[in-house]
């Protein structure tokens, strides 16, 4: 094997993946199966109440992300997948003795992708999954007979109390053992009251427990090679396997999803601030290459790489602000409930005021119509959830972080030309406007489940909504003009200035 050959390194290897059913995990599985000759992929899968793990695996391989793989290698490639029942939130990962021994005897590379991403989760939950889950994975790795390395997926935001972050380990004031003991010995209500004090400088329980999890990984570097990758906000695929593919509703994908439906019309976003977005396929490349680098170099310290864009290919919403509405009408939904539009508001106060007119009033009206027609009203609940999430998300919405990715670029530049093409870490060629166009198409197809063949019908419906939207605006403006005239006792002509003033106010909102 020539040194630096990432692809050939994976030939014949057996890998174990936690979180393999998640957004990053499924993209990682697809990439390994499509571009390498791995021997076996063991997926840690939780059984659901109505589905055993093998039924979940059958459903798993039906995901559209595998369409290119099936065309290139056929369905027999999925014989390389093996579902292993377990849960990172349980002792010993919830593994049976037989499954555990199978992993110990056969696995060469471990990819630990599992985590709870819920920013509202309490400390007990995040400790159980993010911290103890990582400790359990590390304990398993210590027993694996032929382990080449452990790759741990962390987050760029583990150090979000710092606005400029380097690719290195930062100390955490509290020890993992102390936090675990505190969580296990403190009643839930008392723990909830103490959480803010325990977190200290950390924004939430997610960043705190992920920071502690990193230390769990680095503490074992004397026993086996390890690497930590820190992606920022992970978004739709840039290049592969399908440009725009996503199954995540987080971040801009969720924004576009709600806007295309016609129910989300305003966003609290400062278009001048840098937002750190990273395509999922680049994250997957970083995971694959990071594990390879740790395995071949066997470093004395855990390798850490930022999979980020803020210091190398920074994104600001003003880059695409002028084209988002165009995309909403270029790729409209047949299931839209109203004419789509999206405006960015750099103030949370202005957003809440604007939401009263553009979210809440339409939500009450449309929910009433839905209820009368026998449907299930959902818009008020949707906007209630949005409002509840604003407080916890505010630090992430209106803060700029800059994550250095110098080591990541050095890693990319050290690759062979073939590996640079197969596993690129370089965002240099990415054009954000083109990327967002593919994202808009991806959201339509993969989140809204609307095939390209339905686009013509959706465009006709969009035109009808445009006409109705104009009529509604005329009715609203006329009503305000007439109401002001009636209340003031003046003629419509004398009250004419109400129209431009109202237009200016709505323009601000």
UniProtKB/TrEMBL annotation:
Keywords: Lipid biosynthesis, Lipid metabolism, Membrane, NADP, Oxidoreductase, Transmembrane, Transmembrane helix
Main location: membrane
Any GO molecular function: alcohol-forming long-chain fatty acyl-CoA reductase activity
Pfam families, sorted: NAD_binding_4, Sterile
Catalysed reactions listed for this entry: a long-chain fatty acyl-CoA + 2 NADPH + 2 H(+) = a long-chain primary fatty alcohol + 2 NADP(+) + CoA
UniProt membrane topology term: Multi-pass membrane protein
Recorded GO CC terms: membrane; peroxisome
Domain of life: Eukaryota
Keyword Repressor: no
Location(s) in or outside the cell: Membrane
Domain Thioester reductase (TE): 17-287
EC id: 1.2.1.84
Every Fatty acyl-CoA reductase C-terminal domain range: 358-450
GO biological process, one term: long-chain fatty-acyl-CoA metabolic process
CDD domains recorded: FAR-N_SDR_e, FAR_C
SUPFAM superfamilies: NAD(P)-binding Rossmann-fold domains
InterPro entries: FAR (IPR026055), FAR_C (IPR033640), FAR_NAD-bd (IPR013120), NAD(P)-bd_dom_sf (IPR036291)
Residues that span the membrane, as ranges: 464-484
Family: Belongs to the fatty acyl-CoA reductase family.
Stated role: Catalyzes the reduction of fatty acyl-CoA to fatty alcohols.
PANTHER family assigned: FATTY ACYL-COA REDUCTASE CG8306-RELATED (PTHR11011:SF45), MALE STERILITY PROTEIN 2-RELATED (PTHR11011)
Name used for this protein in its record: Fatty acyl-CoA reductase
């Amino acid at each position: 094997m020539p040194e630096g050959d990432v692809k050939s390194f994976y030939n014949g290897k057996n890998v174990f993946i936690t979180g393999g059913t998640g957004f990053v995990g499924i993209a990682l599985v697809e990439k390994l199966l499509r571009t390498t000759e791995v021997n076996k992929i063991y997926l840690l899968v939780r059984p659901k109440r109505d589905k055993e793990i093998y039924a979940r695996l059958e459903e798993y391989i039906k995901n559209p992300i595998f369409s290119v793989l099936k065309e290139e290698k056929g369905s027999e490639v999925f014989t390389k997948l093996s579902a292993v029942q377990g849960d990172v939130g349980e002792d010993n990962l919830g593994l049976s003795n037989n499954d555990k021994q199978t992993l110990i005897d056969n696995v060469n590379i471990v990819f630990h992708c599992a985590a709870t991403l819920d920013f509202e989760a309490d400390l007990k939950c995040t400790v159980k999954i993010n911290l103890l889950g990582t400790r359990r994975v590390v304990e398993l790795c210590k027993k694996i007979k032929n382990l080449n390395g452990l790759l741990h997926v962390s987050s760029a935001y583990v150090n979000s109390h710092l606005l400029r972050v380097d690719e290195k380990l930062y100390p955490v004031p509290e020890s993992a053992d102390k936090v675990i003991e505190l969580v296990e010995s403190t009643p839930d209500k008392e723990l909830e009251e103490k959480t803010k004090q325990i977190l200290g400088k950390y924004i939430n329980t997610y960043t705190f427990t992920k920071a502690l999890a990193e230390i769990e990984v680095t503490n074992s570097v004397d026993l086996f090679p390890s690497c930590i990758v820190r992606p920022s906000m992970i978004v739709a695929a840039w290049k592969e396997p399908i440009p725009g593919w996503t199954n995540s509703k987080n971040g801009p994908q969720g924004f576009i999803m709600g806007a295309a439906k016609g129910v989300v019309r305003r966003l609290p976003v400062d278009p001048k601030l840098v937002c750190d977005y990273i395509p999922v396929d680049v994250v997957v490349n970083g995971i694959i290459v990071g594990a390879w680098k740790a395995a071949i170099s066997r470093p004395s310290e855990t390798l850490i790489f930022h999979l980020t864009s803020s210091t190398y290919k920074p994104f600001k919403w003003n880059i695409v602000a002028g084209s988002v509405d165009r995309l909403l009408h270029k790729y409209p939904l047949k299931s839209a409930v109203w004419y789509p539009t999206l405006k960015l508001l750099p103030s949370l106060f202005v957003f809440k005021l604007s939401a009263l007119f553009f979210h809440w009033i339409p939500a009450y009206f449309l929910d009433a119509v839905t209820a009368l027609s026998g449907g299930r009203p959902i818009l008020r609940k949707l906007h209630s959830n949005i409002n509840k999430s604003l407080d916890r998300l505010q630090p992430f919405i209106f803060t700029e972080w800059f994550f250095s990715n110098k080591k990541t670029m050095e890693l990319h530049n050290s690759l062979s030309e073939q590996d640079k093409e197969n596993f690129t870490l370089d965002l240099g060629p990415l054009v954000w406007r083109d990327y967002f166009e593919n994202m808009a198409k991806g959201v339509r197809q993969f989140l809204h489940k609307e095939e390209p063949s339905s686009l013509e019908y959706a465009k006709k419906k969009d035109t009808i909504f445009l006409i109705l939207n104009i009529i509604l605006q005329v009715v609203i403006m006329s009503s305000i003009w007439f109401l002001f005239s009636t209340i003031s006792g003046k003629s419509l002509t004398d009250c004419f200035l109400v129209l431009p003033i109202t237009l200016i106010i709505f323009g601000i909102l």
